[in-house]
Recover the amino acids of this structure.
């Protein structure tokens, strides 16, 4: 069972509950709303695995179609983030805390921060 609640705190990533999937615990965090209100990050410390949603995207891992859309996105929307400064703060915190994990972004290829570690 998964029970998400509003983030408990006012930082870039606030605890918002947890759930178990088999033997693994996933912690849920709510972002500060810089990208969109209610943005959620899932973290499994045991597996060093993070699902970032659109808070983080791996532009280097974009396919040709994603690159084409990304070049048009500014013209199709008024902006990618609802509050760019808050979004940047959230992304920075996410990478500082979990950049050495396997990141599964909202767009682009996975990014393995574990590479090179034993």
């Amino acid at each position: 069972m998964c029970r998400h609640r509003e983030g408990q705190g006012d930082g870039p990533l606030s605890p918002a509950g947890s759930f178990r999937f088999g033997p693994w615990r996933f912690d849920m965090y709510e972002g500060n709303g810089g990208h969109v209100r209610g943005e959620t990050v899932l973290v499994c410390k045991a597996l060093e695995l993070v699902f970032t949603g659109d808070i983080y995207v791996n532009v280097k891992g974009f396919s040709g179609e994603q690159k084409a859309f990304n070049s048009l996105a500014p013209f199709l929307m008024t902006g990618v983030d609802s509050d760019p400064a808050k979004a940047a703060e959230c992304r920075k915190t996410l990478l500082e805390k979990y950049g050495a994990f396997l990141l599964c972004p909202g767009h682009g290829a996975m990014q393995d921060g574990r590479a090179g570690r034993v």
Summary: Residues 84-98 form the longest helix (15 residues). The mean pLDDT is 80. The CA atoms of residues 12 and 90 lie 5 Å apart. The chain has one domain: 13-112.
